[in-house]
Structure formats: C-alpha cells, structure tokens
Design brief:
17 helices; single chain; alpha+beta; four-stranded mixed β-sheet
C-alpha cells in the first residue's frame, strides 16, 4: 500500500513538474522578441484539442472559437493536434495563408491522417508532386465537364435515385440518398463501373468503413473504426490495382472521348501505380463526401428559405420549358443555371463543408503586430470569415440573393483558395445542379427541426436528414 502511494505521488509530482516546465517555457517565449498572439496552451500533452473538436452546428463557430476569439482576438495561440498552433479567425490572414501555401505555409495534416490517406494523397503531397497530380485532375475535369456523355450519365443517375423513392412512405433519408447518388457518379466517371455491378457494392461497402476513419480515434486495434478504415483502404487499393492490371492486359489504356479518368491516368507515363491508386481514391473521397454534403446542405437550407426555393424553381421551370419532352439537359442548360450557382455558394458559405485547414509556418512570419513562429501549426478557420458580421449582413441567414453583389465572392472561399483550390469543384457543381433540377421540379419537402448539419468536425447529418416529401406530379424520366 505504501509502495502504491509512493508511485502515485511520484506520478503526480512528475505531472506538476512538467506543467511547471511548460508554463516556464511558454513564459520565456512570450518574453522573447517574437510577439505571439494571446491565447492558452491548455492542458499538458492534451492541449485544447478536445474543446476545439467539440461538435456544434456547422452554420456557427461553436463555443470554443466564439469564446477564444472574444477573449484573445481573432488570431490566438493554442495547442492543438499535438502541436503549438496559431488559430486564425481573421479573413485577411486566412487569405494570406492560402495564397502563400507553397512558400510560407505548406500543408501539414496530423500524422494519423497519413495512414488513412496514404503518402501520395493530394491532401498531403507538396511541391512538384502536388502540381503533377493536381494538373492530371484539372486537365481531366476541364476536358470532360461539358461532354454530353458525362452530363447524360449524371442526369440519368440522378433520375434513378429520385425515381427509386417509395411514393407510399413519403419520407426519405436524403443524406444517404445524396451519398449513394454521388458515389454512383464517381464510380462510373472514374472507373466505368455501373451501380448494379457486384463490384460497385463491394467498393461502396469498403468506402463506408474508409470514411468513418476520418472521424475516429486513432486506435489501431481490431474492431475499432480506425482499424477498419485502414483495412478498407488496403482492400480498395487492391481493387483499383486489379482494374489497372486488367486494362493493361487488354491494352485498354488510351484516353478517349467519353472515357473515364482511369484511362487518362494510365496514359500518363510520369505516374507510378501507387500515385494512380491514390489519385483515384482521393477523387472518390472528394466526389463522394463533398458533393453529397453540398447537396444535403442545399436541401436543408432551402427547407427554411421559401423565397430562394421559389426563385430556384422558376429558373429550372424556364429551362424545362425550352426543352422538348423527354430531352436531357446539356451544357448550355447548365450555363443558364445562374441562381443555382448562387444557391450552391451560399450553402457552402453557411454550411462550411470545410471548416478549417492544416498548415505549418516554415519561417517566422510577421502579421500585423505579432509573429507566427517557424515550426508552429497554423489553422486558418474558413468558417469564421463566412460567418463574420463585418463581412456579411446577417451572416447566419441563408440568402443566395446576396451573391447578386459581385463583391460577395471576394469575401468567401467556399471551395478553398490558392494552389489547393478544389480541382473537382466544377464536376461537383454540375452533379448538384442536375440533381436539383429534377428535385425542385418534382417534389416539395419539409425538414425535421432537430436534425441540423453538425461540424463533427466534418459536416454530418446525424439523423440522416429525413425529409417529408410531397410529389408534384409524375417524375421526368421515370419510364426511361
């Protein structure tokens, strides 16, 4: 008993000594020539990470950022994700960080993310490798976004999901429907896999486990979500490698009009197999998660914005009137969806699919009256600018009409910015616009008041975004 008490006392004495040492070092840093922003480093070892990640409505800053910004200012120091960190809720600094990503603030995600994403992920790679992989995606997106094959594929898959809804139940878990739609589009567009193929179900099952790893504790023990995510990535990589080998065996590696991304990747002589696999996984992840969240946020916000919904319907009714019966949408129709674009931007601004980014200062950077020290993490909080009352009138209000003012686009970064501006944004917008076209022309809906979008830390609808549906007539394409 005495020995146990001695061990306990020794343990707590050690903790007190470490805490004192950290406080002493922190005081010395504040007394140094580097004038750090005010803030708190939190608890020894843990810092303030748990408070920072506390779930909250995605159309709000959350209690942590609100309290810290109020107490310390829009830029403050903290200790997050195991590192001393400068947190920025300052729009000017955030834009400066984004525009200087390759020079002063390279990407720096927590190490646990590297295991899930892989070392060749677009989110993690830097410099020439990032430019090479990103250019491959941009060239493909630019070449295919207006192709009739792609546009017709998107529209038919959207109609397939909408027509599958049970007219008797009059209720649908929309978030799941949006995810199923977007993964079907990405599998077809990237790998030429149809939704009814057995391989599609295999990919979808593994992808669900893969996604869960991004919001799990990094405990690599069998049975945990993190372990399942790592195993799912291994299986998904094996599936994609098998497809690559089969295409090479059949000499089917040349890009062609209406072809998929994998053929474009295979035609690139400067990409390794591991880079190809990682690129496909990145695009599946981005196209699946981001687009599904955007579509769900739009449906959620429109449920409480009757004026915006009515204007959106009018725009799509005007487009449909110009079409022949049964005629599919085309690129010219998409270019006429101007208010639809404003709805998308406003949903991204209010819903904040990407709340913050991970960066690191590679040298001391002076900003206004303080210095960001070299080696410190920097977290630009994009949602802070989106919800800043000095930048937007009534920032918590979903109001697509605010985008009629051209200056609005200079005050928001809905798809990121700088050299890491989302390369697949154009595809996501086409998919979203075509789905909305048929949704608003064929259904009215009501949302549940107790299922808001949550920053978890990524946007989630924990209740599935259940909608009460009211059909407005026979759905276009239901007999196609």
């Amino acid at each position: 008993m005495v020995e146990l008490l001695a061990i306990i006392l020794t343990f707590f004495s050690g903790l007190l000594a470490i805490a004192y040492l950290l406080k002493y070092l922190n005081k010395n840093k504040q007394d140094s020539p580097h004038k750090l922003p005010h803030g708190s480093m939190g608890w020894p070892f843990a810092g303030e990470t748990l408070g920072f990640l506390k779930p909250h409505r995605s159309n709000s800053l959350g209690s942590f950022l609100q309290e810290h910004s109020s107490r310390y200012g829009k830029v403050f120091k903290s200790h997050l994700f195991g590192s001393p960190t400068i947190v920025s809720c300052d729009f000017e600094l955030n834009m400066y960080v984004l525009q200087n990503e390759g020079k002063l603030f390279p990407v720096e995600y927590p190490k646990v993310m590297h295991n899930i994403l892989g070392k060749f992920s677009l989110l993690l790679v830097k410099g020439d490798l990032h430019r090479k992989l990103r250019n491959t995606v941009i060239n493909f997106v630019s070449a295919t976004k207006h192709e009739s094959n792609f546009l017709h594929c998107v529209e038919m898959l959207a109609l397939s999901r909408i027509n599958s809804w049970d007219p008797i139940s009059k209720q649908v878990a929309f978030y799941e429907e949006a995810k199923r739609f977007t993964i079907n589009v990405m599998m077809k567009h990237l790998l030429n896999i149809n939704p009814d193929e057995p391989l599609a179900s295999k990919i979808l099952g593994n992808f669900e486990n893969y996604i869960q790893g991004f919001i799990s504790l990094p405990i690599n023990i069998p049975g945990t979500a993190y372990f399942k995510a790592l195993q799912a990535r291994i299986r998904l990589s094996a599936i994609i490698k098998d497809i690559i080998l089969e295409r090479r065996k059949c000499n089917n590696v040349r890009p062609e009009e209406g072809g998929d991304l994998l053929n474009v990747i295979l035609s690139k002589q400067n990409l390794s197999d591991e880079e190809m696999v990682s690129l496909v996984l990145d695009l599946l992840f981005g196209g699946y998660e981001t687009t599904a969240k955007l579509l769900s946020l739009i449906v959620y916000f429109l449920g409480g914005a009757s004026n915006a919904l009515e204007r959106l319907k009018e725009e799509h009714q005007e487009i449909r009137k110009r079409k022949k019966e049964g005629e599919l949408l085309n690129w010219e129709d998409y270019k006429q969806m101007e208010f639809t674009q404003k709805v998308m931007y406003e949903a991204m601004r209010c819903g904040n699919v990407v709340k913050y980014l991970h960066r690191k200062a590679v040298q001391d950077v002076k900003f206004k009256d303080y210095v960001i020290p070299a080696g410190w993490k920097v977290l630009p909080v994009l949602s802070s600018g989106h919800l800043d009352p000095t930048l937007f009138e009534n920032p918590l209000e979903f109001n697509p009409f605010r985008w009629n003012d051209n200056s609005t686009s200079k005050k928001a970064a809905p798809f990121g910015g700088g050299p890491r501006l989302c390369p697949g944004a154009d595809l996501a917008k086409v998919e979203t616009a075509f789905f909305l076209h048929h949704l608003v022309l064929n259904y009215r809906w009501k949302i549940k008041p107790d299922d808001p979008p949550l920053a978890f830390p990524y946007v989630e609808f924990t209740g599935g975004l259940l909608l009460d549906l009211e059909p407005m007539g026979s759905t276009f394409g239901e007999h196609l």
